[in-house]
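REQUEST FORM: STRUCTURE PREDICTION
Request ID: SP-0412
Submitted by: Lab K.M.
Chain count: 1
Length (residues): 455
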Amino acid sequence: MTETGTPEPGTPGAGTPEPGTRRARLPLATGRQVLRALRRAVGAQRLLAAATLLLAAAAALAGLVAPWAIGLLVDEVVGGGEPGGVVALIAWVAGAGVLGAALTAVSAAAVARIGQRVLARMREDVLGAALRLPPGRLEETGRGDLLARVGDDVGVVSQVVASLLAPWVGAALAVTLTVAGLFALNPLLALAGLTAIPVYVLALRWYLPRAAPRYGAERAAFGDRSEALVASLSGLPTVHAYGAEREHAAEIAASSHRARTISRDVLWFATGWGKWMNIAELVGLGAIIAAGFGLVRADAVTVGAVTAAALYFHRLFNPLGLIVFSFDEMQSAGASLQRMVGVVIAGAGPGAGAGSGADDAPGARPPSPAGSGAGSGADAGAGTGHSLPGLPAADRPAAADRLPADARPAGAVSVRGVGHRYGEHRVLREVSLEIAPGEQVALVGASGAGSPRSP
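STATUS: Completed
RESULT:
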């Protein structure tokens, strides 16, 4: 932007942002666009993904053997069975435990391998799109938002892939197969356990609509903080020259305070959400034991069946707890994925890397890298004491018409419809400027730093 006249000492440059102001940001991808990007990335690993799901399902099935065997063991003891039968059931429990541990380890390694490959491909897409962003778009959004997306957001997703993806896949399969095992054992006991579902539903209905906006705002606040830091540090000499330290420090402090406040709110929100898990576990397990007591008295089921049902439901505590208590991290990773895919959309969207207008028509002569445009007005360009390297020799002023290098030009300047390019990328369009006699013009950026040239 431009500033005419001489700035007063101690005042910030024209480009200094006011504390609390917000730049335009790169777009956010929708949930459907994120899923489409994930499907495309996972599609290259179809065979490995199918084998991994089979291994994880086998590990979950192995985990169902122990509650079933313990239920049979209870019936064997209550019925006065032979010691050999008891030993055989104990062997089943031990063997299933060893097999389940081995399958879980192998499937977890396979899930992590797929996740890292998918993340690597998405990271390459994001970095490639970032390099293709038009400079004009980057000037509008600021470098901080882009740096946060290719740095902080990629780091958040990488951390989740490394530490949570495999446990989440195993937990989801364990929950699904355990509920199926409950129904296979006894539908009435399974229905008793399902009384916990309303508690989960009410908790999710309260949590989900409030969680996504909070995590999205948290990631955006981190981007604003990065932008404030980058803009100030990149133009630090100019900030000192204008005496604008307080204004820039206030902007950094305001963005940091906002990021800290939102993060603290997210933490308290996730902590409060966890108590609903304990309530749901109490309701479900209590319902199974109460229903089992009545069914045993009516000789509808055995004590061992009720024991197995209670153990099946108890087995849900860990996977459901993992899903719920790490849901905030998954939500944060989802918000980061939206921002990452948003960079890809911005880099490949309409107009990315191309200008618009008559200057961009096929066959038009591209201006020099220093800039392009046209000035109009009686005095436009008059009185320049220097040759213009971007102009053909025929259009340059004759040596006799040039002023000495130390001469002060006279007259006004009127500029209309100026544009500027870096290579094929237009960064300025339709800039108009009026400079009265005696005025000075400074071109400044977002941090107050001066521009080395004007178009």
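NOTES: Strands lie at 2-4, 413-422, 425-435, 441-443.
Reviewed by: T.R.
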